[in-house]
């Protein structure tokens, strides 16, 4: 109502939201329904086809890798017991350290290391099957991170910041490159933990919601009961496919009619795109997650059904290959339990026993399908462990030096890049922090980390903030 002129003005609900309280109501709505159709685009990338924010985009430069499979080891696996051989640690076993670590006693690895492949990479006996792929692996032995706490370090590893809510690495990749298969999510996380950052590790942050990761659980009950592999409500029990299509078409027609009248509301397309994707997933996702069509030899290779406790992780690795084969851009495979403050030998044997065979099978499977060359497989956790003892038979958190590795996707196989000191306490050569790691992996995907930006809150943000250097030494 216009009180000055004693007349009533008609307005829509959106116009009212825009007018009331300086427009904060409309801003809230825009945030909930944000879509890339009205958002800043990747500099130098193609415009999205038909306004589809998930349409494939051209990279900034020729890409080495088309997709990423991130094998995330939550809890901080010990580098000095897996991929960072330290003979001096064996020599100095039991000696006390001085300085700020006065009283700490060095603890040699209880596991033997041997050289593998033509490259002669030193790898622990904990990973005998994975070690067979040494010539495809690049060991990043100079890794370091900013914080030694699980939740903060995990969020930093996934998003580039432990202080603020930011888009995840997978969301940035999807934003920059789009995805090939429009019937599947472009970013999938398999069995992610609820702790150590939880959904923030695969969230879209301030990016449009269409870029966030899709969580796929691996609940045994879902498989046992013939469900959709941990994705409840994927199928609509009330409406047929034809009826759902008719319903969505009506929503789309109403939305497009609204857009013609009010160009400022094109952000709602993000919500509509999510509905569309959920509808399309019904046609492809259940069959893709049903591994009964795999050859018995393939299941045996991954160790599925072997009864040694690695069944869940083995299924994740096999599903990762199936998703990659179908065009999913970013797949995260999760495995927890690496927080070895005590019972080091027994717990490391258990954890490694669950992942070794499936990871080796994944690498072999990708290689035999001629997919490893353009699939970037990355392994690692949020930090490493100390080479000195905790609780007599354990290791504490170590953010100053640890190892991750990459294979395929344009990395130099059979190489070791960077190093920690003689005991493995901190990185001293080829130091790669999380910003460097993100910048380098994006470069392998054909993305310039300084150009992959999104304008939000008045400035251009990027995954690497204002930091990050590409370590070209690992790129073939």
Question: Could you characterize the architecture of this molecule?
Answer:
With 476 residues, the protein is an alpha/beta fold. The chain has a single domain, classed as Alkaline Phosphatase, subunit A, CATH 3.40.720. 30% of the residues lie in helices and 16% in strands. It contains twelve helices and 16 strands. The strands form five sheets. An eight-stranded mixed sheet has the order 6-5-7-1-8-11-4-12, sandwiched between helices. The longest helix has 25 residues. The N terminus is likely disordered.
- Strand-residue proportion: 15-25%
Q: Kindly state the mean pLDDT as a whole number? A: 86
- Tally of DSSP β-strands: 16
Task: State the CATH class.
Answer: Alpha Beta
Please count the helical segments: 12
The CATH topology is given as Alkaline Phosphatase, subunit A
Give a short account of the largest sheet: 8 strands, mixed
Shape: globular
SSE order? HHEHEEEHHEEHHHHHEHEEEEEEEHEE
Radius of gyration in whole Å, from Cα? 24 Å
* CATH architecture assignment name: 3-Layer(aba) Sandwich
Total domains, how many?
1
The rounded distance between the terminal residues' Cα atoms is: 68 Å
Lateral arrangement of strands in the main beta sheet: 6-5-7-1-8-11-4-12
Structural class call reads: alpha/beta
Low-pLDDT runs: 1-11, 21-49, 220-230
The proportion of residues forming helix, as a percent range, comes to 25-40%
Write a concise keyword list for the protein shown above.
476 residues, alpha/beta, Alkaline Phosphatase, subunit A, 8-stranded mixed β-sheet, 12 helices
List the helices and strands and how they pair.
Elements: H1 13-19, H2 24-32, E1 67-73, H3 87-91, E2 113-116, E3 121-124, E4 137-143, H4 150-159, H5 169-177, E5 187-190, E6 214-216, H6 220-224, H7 241-261, H8 269-289, H9 296-302, H10 311-325, E7 330-335, H11 344-368, E8 375-380, E9 384-390, E10 394-398, E11 402-407, E12 415-417, E13 419-420, E14 427-429, H12 434-444, E15 453-456, E16 459-462
Parallel strand pairs: 1-7, 1-8, 4-12, 5-6, 5-7
Antiparallel strand pairs: 2-3, 4-11, 8-11, 9-10, 13-14, 15-16
Helix pairs in contact: 1-2, 7-8, 10-11
């Amino acid at each position: 109502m216009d009180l000055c002129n004693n007349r009533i003005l008609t307005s829509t609900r959106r116009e009212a939201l825009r007018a009331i309280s300086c427009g904060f109501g409309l801003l809230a709505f825009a945030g909930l329904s944000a879509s890339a159709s009205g958002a800043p685009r990747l500099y130098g990338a193609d415009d999205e086809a038909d306004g589809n924010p998930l349409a494939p985009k051209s990279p900034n430069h020729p890409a080495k890798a088309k997709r990423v499979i991130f094998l995330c080891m939550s809890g901080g696996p010990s580098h000095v017991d897996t991929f960072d051989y330290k003979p001096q640690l064996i020599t100095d076993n039991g000696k006390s350290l001085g300085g700020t670590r006065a009283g700490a006693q060095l603890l040699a690895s209880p596991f033997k290391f041997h050289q593998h492949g033509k490259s002669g990479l030193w790898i622990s006996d904990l990973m005998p099957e994975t070690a067979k792929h040494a010539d495809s692996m690049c060991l990043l032995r100079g890794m370091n991170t900013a914080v030694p706490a699980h939740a903060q370090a995990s969020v930093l590893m996934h998003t580039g910041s432990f202080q603020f809510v930011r888009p995840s690495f997978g969301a940035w990749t999807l934003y920059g490159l789009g995805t090939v298969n429009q019937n599947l999510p472009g970013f999938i996380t398999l069995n992610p933990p609820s702790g150590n950052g939880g959904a923030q590790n695969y969230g879209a942050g301030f990016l449009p919601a269409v870029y966030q990761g899709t969580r796929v659980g691996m609940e045994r009950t879902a498989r046992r009961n013939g469900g959709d592999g941990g994705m409840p409500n994927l199928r609509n029990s009330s409406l047929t496919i034809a009826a759902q299509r008719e319903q969505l078409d009506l929503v789309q027609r109403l939305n497009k009619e609204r857009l013609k009248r009010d160009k400022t509301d094109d952000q709602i397309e993000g919500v509509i795109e999510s509905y569309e994707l959920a509808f399309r997933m019904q046609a492809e996702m259940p069959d893709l997650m049903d591994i009964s069509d795999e050859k018995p030899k393939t299941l045996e290779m991954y160790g599925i059904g072997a009864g040694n406790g690695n069944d869940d992780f083995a299924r994740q690795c096999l599903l990762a290959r199936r998703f990659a084969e179908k065009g999913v851009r970013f797949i995260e495979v999760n495995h927890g339990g690496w927080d070895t403050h005590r019972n080091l030998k027994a717990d490391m044997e258990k954890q490694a026993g669950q992942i070794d065979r499936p990871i080796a099978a994944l690498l072999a499977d990708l290689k035999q399908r001629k997919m490893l060359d353009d699939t970037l497989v990355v392994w690692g956790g949020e930090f490493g462990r100390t080479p000195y003892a905790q609780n007599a038979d354990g290791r504490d958190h170590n953010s100053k030096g640890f190892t991750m590795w990459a294979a395929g996707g344009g990395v130099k196989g059979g190489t070791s890049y960077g190093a920690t000191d003689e005991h493995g306490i901190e990185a001293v050569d080829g130091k790669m922090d999380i910003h460097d790691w993100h910048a380098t992996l994006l470069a392998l995907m054909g993305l310039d980390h300084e150009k992959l930006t999104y304008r939000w809150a008045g400035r251009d943000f990027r995954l690497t903030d204002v930091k990050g250097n590409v370590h070209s030494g690992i790129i073939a």
